[in-house]
Design brief:
single chain; 4-stranded antiparallel beta sheet
Amino acid sequence: QVQLVESGGDLVQPGGSLRLSCAASGSIIRIYDMGWYRQAPGKQRELVASITRSGVTNYADSIEGRFTISRDNAKNTVSLQMNSLQPEDTAIYYCNARVYVSTPPVINNYWGQGTQVTVSS
């Protein structure tokens, strides 16, 4: 019913920047919370940042001001600007969205396929 397509993952040197983007499509009535999660090898998936439809944000403590999440409700997109990247940020980054769909009328959580971010010199 809903597909989340991510882009922007890459190999970057320590101190570099990347911008991840995620676009939602399908039988969407309304998108509520959206967020970015990441999973490194040998670790469990963790929340990086989330944003409500009205723009209220939440960040993991480990980010410490380096990342910024934003969204465009008209385009059904969410982005993550990542600055001052460090090797510890290396992970697969996943887009997540809570979506009200029409068939049947229900609210579900959806996940993107993930995009690889590698920080290495």
